[in-house]
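SEVERITY: medium
COMPONENT: batch folding queue
REPORTER: lab tech (J.R.)

DESCRIPTION
The queue accepted two submissions in a row. Attaching both inputs and their returned structure tokens so the on-call engineer can compare them side by side.

ATTACHMENT 1
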Amino acid sequence: MKINGTPYRSVWVDPEDGWSVRLFDQTRLPWSVDILRLTNWEEAAHAIRSMQVRGAPLIGAVAAYGVALAMRADPASLDQVLPTLNATRPTAINLRWALDRQRAKLHNLPVEARAAAAYAEAAAIADDDAETCRRIGENGLPLLAEIAERKGKVNVLTHCNAGWLATVDWGTALAPIYMAHDAGHDVHVWVDETRPRNQGAALTAFELGAHGVKHTVVADNAGGHLMQHGEVDICIVGTDRVTRQGDVANKIGTYLKALAARDNGIPFWVALPHSTLDWRVRDGIAEIPIEERDGVEVTDLTGRTADGRIETVRVVAEGSPAANPAFDVTPARLVTGLITERGRCEASEAGLRSLYPDVAEQ
């Protein structure tokens, strides 16, 4: 995708030295476009943990490059590095998926061969995600095109950021939106602010604006009102983990949007790559670990002042504690369907098996 006309992926190896890893510092967006340089696996782990880099597919790719950086420095450190990287974020299954790929690739190799193999595998993971997301866009496009052709326009509501900043390229939930826009359809996106970290207001709005897609940022609690008044035609969100029966873990607040969509008869679709499927988990509410983040993300807000300074202010009364569950689980019964790189299906074990018969039992 492009920023100011320049094409980027969200993670890449620095072409000047051929080994350090570059990525956008997402904690600085949208106020400034800062590019980080990772030179060791500890910096990769910090970037993931601090959410300088976030989005389920992207943290998997960055973790894979973190392994490559570790193998460059000490190819005997594989068994130490993998569990530490895996512990940086607990909910997104893509992280474990990418690290499992690196483990399978490297574990039986001689140490002198590990660095080159780790870089090659990380690049393959990144390329796989970019192509996967492109196909998700193609498979989701007909849903938007049909509405736009029937009504003359389409209003989409999304939650959190599931665009190219959350993946290696294109995005999941935003990929069909980009393709619909590029095909000439009249697309408008309602962008939930997505408290407490405001990924919608900061990142999704930044992406859509850079691509020229019409959008409006709304408070998280405005979605139901918009649906009641016919202002939403379809909801599309991304996800950090999908169970074998189709339950969906996504940014906190997704479940409430799904409930409102069901009450108002609005399609609620979830876009995901194969790396987000967790065949080992059936009941998402009971089995998916939900990350509990620092309460300061709830009590404090960061923004740009009128004179251009970036400041953090407290918005909660002193002495009041804050809880901060980062994700919730939307049961499969509330999901209209899943958009994957292999096609669309119902949110159920039978639906997923119809698209992934080759991997369902692995």
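ATTACHMENT 2
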Amino acid sequence: MTTARSLGLWSDGANSLPTGPNNAITDVPGVMVGHRTLKGDGLATGVTAIMPHQGDLFRSKVRGAVDVINGFGKSGGLVQIAELGTIETPILLTNTFGVAACTEALIRRAIAQNPKIGRQTSTVNAVVCECNDGQINDIQALAVTVEDAFAALDAVAPGVVEQGAVGAGTGMTAFGFKAGIGTASRRMKIGKEEFTLGSLVLANFGRAGDLVLPDGRRPMPGAVSGAEKGSIIVVLATDLPLGDRQLQRVARRAGAGIARLGAFWGNGSGDITLCFTTADPVVHDGPDFQTVRMLSNDHIDVAFRAAAEATQEAILNALCAAPATTGRTGKLFPSLADWAKGHAQ
């Protein structure tokens, strides 16, 4: 798989944090990722699933936060995460018009595991985020179904994550290039303990001509575009014990990784980060009080750096792993990998 590192577009600086073994969000213990890709007959779309742990998420919720950098988006479930600070379903990524099908799939899957949902206990907050892949995919076809969402959930696995034009990223573009799914991770040492933070992005943002590589070069995919009207969803996972406010603070630092590449979060861009920790899960109908371990803010800068670095590299990996693709109207979205090979330093 082609990555920013394999193309020489990323090199660790003196202060860079080390990566996990797969340089992926799945380096966080228990986190798994799966894809469902739909191609053909004008379709280039799909679903990507992120599973925070292998258990029953409704019964054992992960603590999480959301940061809305620019809210031009149609996601589901973010309001309750912001209010309660927990995530109780897998996170599904898809295209804008696939949100309803993915929401239904998450609800049905949760009810199958917990038949009391909505009757003897609370309802379930399905978490779905989206980007508009309409430049390549025929989004009006409403191709994503409940069964496709189930297929992505059933495909989740640890280890290496397929990147680029796969799953929800099949029809996505960024900075005028073909883009999609990308991921990266960073290891953090605090005192005598080691932790991991991983970032997975659905990259579909940035004006053509605005991309800035880590070495300062500005690849040109063709003509400079007008308004920035794309989106990016960033999912950050960690096993670092963080409080609710700290999770949102870490989520916000993903914006630094996005901005380092030249994006300015335009009016029509939906830029959203979800951040969760697998430490100290919240038990449904649990005890009246729960003890939560929390990092001292004096040491939180390492998590901020990890979020920015991993997100920046994940975006570059999404661009590098995606092949050149022609959109619905005949416009070519070139491959950043092809550009890099032709402009090797």
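NOTES FROM REPORTER
The first helix runs from residue 78 to 84.
No errors were logged for either attachment.
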